[in-house]
Amino acid sequence: MTTLGPEVVKILGAIESLKGVLEGLPSVEPGSALAVDGEAWPTGPVSAYATTSILSSIEHQLMVRSTLVDALALYPSAIETTLRTALIGAAEACWLLGPDDSDTRVIRGLRIAADDLSDSDGTARDLTTAEAYPADAPVHDLARDRMAQVAAAVDAARRELDRRGFTVSPRRSAISATVMIREALTEAFPGQPMLVYGGMHLWRRGSGKAHARMWPTFIAYDTVAETEATVTVQTTLSSDQLMTGLMPPLQLINRALKLYTLRARA
Length: 266
Fold this sequence. Notes:
With 266 residues, this protein is mainly alpha-helical. The chain has helices at residues 6-16, 33-40, 46-70, 76-97, 102-128, 138-163, 177-188, 193-210, 239-264, and strands spanning 218-225, 228-233. It has a two-stranded antiparallel sheet. A hairpin with a 2-residue loop joins β1 (218-225) and β2 (228-233).
């Protein structure tokens, strides 16, 4: 059975209160900042990407809460990888909605759009080489059409970025998740380096566990003899470690919700 400390229970209660957001975010009012952003690039409005990021973050946080409270289970690697996803959703929403000027928000939205569309190309490309389908199967034509559409959309987003003074190398991604998260944390917590560090620590540990690496659980490596060694790893999470993982996504999602409401109102 999992025993949760009082501070962890308090944080999980705050996460539970986010469930109502899943019913829908405030409507974007005409003349609001998000409406202006949408007019600048209607095919990939900032509001749409921010909404996706917010809902994803909340769902993942609620999943962790349900695992700990309802199932009374503690799966350390799965929890930290889930919180990593919650962190990136909350950070992305803050990063998109944070700037006061529309041009910066639109540029950030375009960078997300270019990267998002580029990622979707991989699935279609896999279909064109999938041996599970006969060479004359219609799915191959559909995949090629999808790839052409994606290529055109990515090119349009990159050309718009270039027109706005943000040039992306053809072979490089328009955004780095690690840089984006650090910028979101720094903007959210100015002059509070330990909060920035806490978020980045979760990102690093969660990424390590997402790739099934040993280093996030590594405690010690002891050489017993020239031909024998002992590796000590951690297979659970303490209350302090749970708090360290739960707090950054929760703090950022609360900021993101405030920013969304502010930008959606005229």
